[in-house]
Design brief:
Blueprint lengths: L4 E8 L7 E2 L10 E7 L4 E8 L2 E10 L7 E10 L9 E8 L5 E7 L3 E9 L3 E7 L14 E9 L5 H8 E7 L7 E6 L15 E10 L3 E9 L11 H23 L8 H16 L2 E5 L2 E3 L7 E2 L3 E5 L10 E2 H14 L1 H12 L11 E2 L3 H4 L8 E3 L8 H8 L5 H21 L46 H21 L4 H11 L1 H8 E2 L4 E2 L2 E4 L3 E6 L14 E6 L4 E4 L9 H4 L10 H9 L5 E2 L2 E2 L27 H15 L6 H26 L5 E2 L6 E2 L11 H6 L3
Parallel strand pairs: 17-22
Antiparallel strand pairs: 1-2, 1-7, 3-4, 4-5, 5-6, 6-15, 7-14, 8-9, 9-10, 10-15, 11-14, 12-13, 16-19, 17-18, 20-21, 23-24, 25-28, 26-27, 29-30, 31-32
Helix pairs in contact: 4-5, 4-7, 5-7, 7-9, 8-9, 9-10, 14-15
């Protein structure tokens, strides 16, 4: 909760100071960055390309003692493809406390921070040593200028501002026999604007190294409780450890996913390794309070303090926990490290309140809050999110220790009961997402954030009569998994199995959700298909004042009526995606034909989210709200489609061969496009354009887009 945090910033020196890099920011425009290898525990290799600068960061942890052991970090820097003299590069290595712990600097020549000794609750006594830079070969000494900052920390979320406000260009880089150059370096920190009088949260010690690339820097962390240390983990010893861990990682990756055995070339195997590694490298520990609005309270209230260890969708844009994303993340991580995955799932279930509700977005602590617009901070206690953690738990179930399942089961039961109690639909065995946008006149189609599919078209006029197909299918899955857990524990499973059977009844499913006029499964609600956005002039606030800009407002040209919602897309596929349709279902051929129809869902890059012939295909939802789940290709749903097709291809039934054919085509299309986009852009993306295949949305997105690894491995 109150960690001692080491870290790295860098600055390419230039006129006006250049751009200080620290936290992952999409706006920084780095051409490529990400973990190429990361085992989630002891080792990682990351490459960063910032203009002509190439940075490689590598770490190794050596377990030992009572506080986790030692670790060492190597940073290699060089300029690529630039003519003329390389700009000076400054590397800022820092360590900061945040609420507890002590740090003591050890200086050489008053300006070079050679080491920091310290102590903290979780790390005990430790020594952090900053070794002198060398040439890239790791041996020859490298000329560098050194600067040092010792400042009160206003909080980890403001460290970038502290360093930026401390920079001064009064310093001179003067290598022997070479031209002298001015550069920016940390000087004196005089406090941040608006923070006068605020008590400090901790202490920041920073070591700035300025050099002409190329060069290599090493940092060692040595735990005071390690006895019989075999020697410092630096230089040749660090190189040997990195080589050993690299070989072990590659062997474990092949044994786990068998991509070499499947014939994938080395370049595609490296792509898959990077996808897994970037997800592991983005994992974080968060601590704080959610801001919650309950229907029982007039004003929002902070929830109790909570801790969360989780993967995140995107290091740059979504560096926090999202409930439905995490189930997809854990499908991959459960395959790599089941114990790690069990830990994450337990953390998420521990976030549950007394009613059985888990907030869908976890904005815990100041660092997380600093990345979220104020309007998204509030979590509504009646709003659900798909229970995808159960997909991952189902995968872990055969080998999960019984004591773990015993601890989980009361929480799973409370969560399941909460869905049944709060998200029930208007008829028996129907379900309705709560929390749709409450002002329908402002949106082409009011969003349903609870579903995870945000702006996917639902009934145009929200009402209590809605029946949501996807939620009903999620509840069938939840009933199945709860039944499996209960049976594993010897607990009564009858109610769960009965509910699973009722929700899987194909006849009842058709009765409630088959839209004959669409030839597809669909939501039901108060719906008008004649809805559009039009520009409306706004009357000036007072005579003589300039008129405000016109606004896009919703226009309903035909009154809504209770009916099936005319939107063909991902929601229509849910009975197939979660394999509720029997292999001999008479509707299965129609659903498969819809998937394969290029005017509807099929593209050369994967299944698009909304059919091209649907009325809201690629339509904006408001003036400032571009289409999101209204056409682009999303990897998580394509993964579920492949998982289902693989299942139908292996089951006896008349569609077996057709399912196998679609499976082969869809798998090839999805993998080929993600690999092509990664090769061209350097990133996995949030979504992919359904017309060009180009990655779009935020990046890097090594969240559920990393499921491409399981698709390549055919591991469902």
């Amino acid at each position: 909760p109150s960690p001692v945090s080491p870290g790295l910033m860098w600055l390419q020196q230039g006129e006006g100071g250049g751009s200080l890099r620290h936290t992952c920011e999409q706006g920084d425009g780095l051409s490529r960055y990400g973990w190429l290898m990361h085992d989630g525990e002891n080792f990682g290799v990351q490459e960063i390309r910032d203009g002509g600068l190439f940075l490689k960061t590598e770490f190794v942890k050596r377990p030992g003692g009572e506080h986790g052991g030692d670790w060492s970090w190597r940073v290699t820097a060089r300029m690529e493809g630039t003519g003329g003299p390389a700009p000076l590069l400054s590397l800022f290595f820092y360590i900061a406390t945040d609420g507890q712990g002590t740090l003591e600097p050890h200086l050489e020549n008053k300006s070079r921070l050679a080491a920091v000794t310290g102590t903290s609750e979780e790390l005990g006594d430790f020594t952090l040593t900053f070794l002198r830079p060398t040439a890239e070969n790791g041996e020859d000494p490298k000329y560098a200028s050194y600067n040092y900052l010792d400042a009160a920390s206003p909080g980890l979320h403001r460290l970038t501002e502290v360093v930026r406000s401390s920079l001064s260009n009064r310093f001179v880089f003067a290598p022997p026999g070479k031209p002298r150059r001015r550069f920016f370096a940390v000087d004196t920190f005089r406090g941040l604007p608006g923070a006068v009088g605020e008590p400090p949260r901790g202490r920041l010690l920073l070591h700035q190294v300025t050099l002409e690339p190329s060069g290599t820097m090493e940092v060692t962390f040595e735990s005071g409780s390690v006895a019989d240390r075999p020697g410092r983990l630096a230089g040749g010893a660090l190189s040997a450890a990195l080589a050993q861990h690299t070989a072990a990682f590659e062997q474990r990756f092949e044994e786990t996913f068998r991509l070499g055995h499947k014939g994938f070339p080395a370049s595609q195997r490296r792509f898959a390794q990077a996808a897994l590694s970037d997800m592991l490298g983005g994992m974080g520990y968060f601590h704080g309070r959610s801001l919650v609005q309950s229907p029982l309270q007039e004003h929002p209230m902070p929830a109790p303090e909570a801790a969360l260890f989780t993967a995140v969708p995107s290091r740059s844009f979504f560096p926090r926990g999202f409930l439905w994303d995490e189930g997809f993340h854990q499908l991959l991580l459960a395959r790599w490290d089941p114990a790690l995955s069990r830990e994450v799932i337990a953390h998420w279930l521990d976030l549950m309140n007394a009613e059985g509700w888990i907030p869908r977005e976890q904005i815990l602590g100041e660092e997380a809050r600093a990345k979220v617009p104020p309007e998204f901070l509030l979590q509504h206690s009646e709003t659900a999110n798909p229970p995808t953690l159960l997909l991952a738990l189902q995968r872990l179930l055969p080998d999960a220790p019984l004591p773990y399942l015993h601890r989980l089961f009361p929480r799973l039961r409370a969560w399941y009961d909460w869905y049944n109690r709060t998200q029930a639909g208007p008829l028996p065995l129907t379900f309705r997402w709560r929390g749709r946008d409450p002002h329908p006149e402002r949106f082409l189609n009011p969003k349903t954030l609870a579903s995870g599919l945000d702006d996917y078209p639902r009934a145009s006029h929200p009402s209590t009569d809605e029946r949501h197909l996807d939620l009903r299918c999620w509840m069938a899955l939840a009933s199945r998994v709860l039944g499996e857990v209960a049976e594993r524990l010897g607990e009564p499973s009858g109610p769960y199995r009965e509910m699973e059977q009722a929700l899987s009844d194909n006849r009842l499913l058709e009765q409630l959700h088959w839209a004959q006029e669409l030839g597809a499964f669909a939501d039901y609600g108060n719906h008008s298909s004649a809805v559009g956005l039009r520009w409306q002039r706004v009357v000036p606030a007072a005579p003589g004042r300039p008129p405000p800009d016109p606004q896009l407002v919703r226009e309903v040209r035909e009154a809504p009526r209770p009916r099936f919602v005319g939107a063909l897309g991902y929601v229509s596929l849910f009975p197939l995606l979660l394999q509720l349709l029997r292999p001999d279902s008479l509707r299965l051929p129609t659903v498969l034909a819809t998937m394969r129809n290029e005017r509807q869902l099929w593209t050369p890059f994967g299944l698009r989210s909304l059919a091209r012939d649907s009325p809201l295909y690629m339509q904006r939802n408001t003036q400032h709200d571009p289409p999101y789940w209204r056409g682009p290709v999303w990897v998580n749903i394509n993964y579920l489609a492949l998982r289902a097709l693989h299942g139908y291809a292996g089951a006896d039934g008349p569609q077996r061969e057709r399912a196998a054919e679609l499976y082969r085509e869809l798998r090839h299309n999805l993998v080929a496009n993600l690999y092509r986009q990664y090769t061209e852009s350097g990133f996995l993306w949030e979504q992919y354009n359904d017309s060009t295949g180009r990655g779009q949305g935020c990046h890097p997105f090594a969240g559920w887009s990393a499921l491409v690894v399981l698709v390549m491995a055919e591991d469902y």
